[in-house]
Amino acid sequence: MTTPLLNSVKAVTLGVLGLAVGAMSMYVGEVDDAPGAVVMGMALMVGGVALGVRAARHRLPVWAARTALIVAVVTAAFAAFLTHGVVVTAPLFAQSPEVPAVSSEAPAPRYAAGADRARELVRTAMLEQNLPGVSVAVGAGDTLVWAEGFGWRDVGTRTPVTPRTRFNIGTAAPSIADIAAPLGLSETGAEPAAVWSPEAIGEPGEDFPPFTLIRHAILQPLGLAPAEYPLPGDRATFYVPRSDDDPRRGRRLMRMRDLACCADGLAFSSTPSDLVRMALATSIGSINGDLAGGRVMSLARHDSGIVVAVTSNIAHADTAPLAQRIGDAFARRP
């Protein structure tokens, strides 16, 4: 192979790689829900520019330049398709036994069968909807009879949901705030939205990528900066579906503007156990709460008198039907 032709082939290859890597850098920054995704995207972009500069040193014929551009676009599109397919199709939990569960205490014998049926319902719903975490509480008479957390309150650190995990209840807050205050519920109340979104994802206060890289790659490993996740105080990290209002289409971190749905920029949180205690102590009816345009919690009164609260840490979770099915499971005789 002659030297000019070899140089052209080399330049085309470098150009293809440079354009493909550059395109992928933008996609990676968008498709990953981790705060460090923008850093990975930036690193890919730098690599793409370096390859492009090397390719530019070789003067290409017009046909070679056009070929490099077409091949690069096709390569980037194919790589993006594969990446998106992995993100979308890879479930958080492949099967029911993989869903971790943490309970406060074993239910009384008369409710044990109902709790067993409810566990399977929750795990099935999590697999079908690809939900990161769900927490459930059930009350009967004037007593909390069962409470259990499922899945992860933070996906990145694999921190499990427990009955003490606090979830933002979104639009349900105005209906609950005034009722909950006199009851002295310790795990229910309003907090600054910043504690639920420490990185200010998608907001003007979000750190510039180089600062994020320094903090994640240097300061945090050395113990000179605190980790942002899992959130302190047993708070759940919140997510929204990446597209189509469907958690099965992947997820990304919720933005601070989505979390601050209460007055004065506060985020209102609660545990299902507190929600059930509130319902048992009052005559409040069924309530649903939405966040970022999708359902995140449901408090339901079953015809049998059983009260069920279900919360999730991703928008567009079908908590209302799940709460009804759990009520049916507890109402059914063994």
H/E topology pattern: HHHEHEEEEHEHEEHEHEEEH
Distance between the termini: 81 Å
Task: Give the uncertain stretches in residue-range form.
Answer: 29-42, 44-51
Name the shape in a single word: globular
Major β-sheet profile? 7 strands, antiparallel
- So, CATH architecture of the largest domain? 3-Layer(aba) Sandwich
What is the gyration radius calculated from CA atoms? 25 Å
- Whole-number total of structural domains: 2
Q: Would you tell me which CATH topology of the largest domain applies?
A: Beta-lactamase
What fraction of the residues are assigned to beta strands by DSSP? 15-25%
Q: What is the mean pLDDT?
A: 81
Can you say what the CATH homologous superfamily of the largest domain is? DD-peptidase/beta-lactamase superfamily
Total count of strands:
12
The CATH class name of the largest domain reads Alpha Beta
Portion of residues in helices?
40-55%
Number of helical runs?
Answer: 9
Task: Describe the SSE topology.
Blueprint: H1 3-31, H2 37-56, H3 62-89, E1 101-103, H4 109-129, E2 133-140, E3 143-154, E4 159-160, E5 167-168, H5 173-180, E6 189-192, H6 209-219, E7 239-241, E8 251-253, H7 256-259, E9 266-270, H8 272-281, E10 287-291, E11 294-301, E12 307-312, H9 319-331
Antiparallel strand pairs: 1-3, 2-3, 2-12, 3-4, 5-9, 6-9, 7-8, 10-11, 11-12
Helix pairs in contact: 1-2, 1-3, 4-9
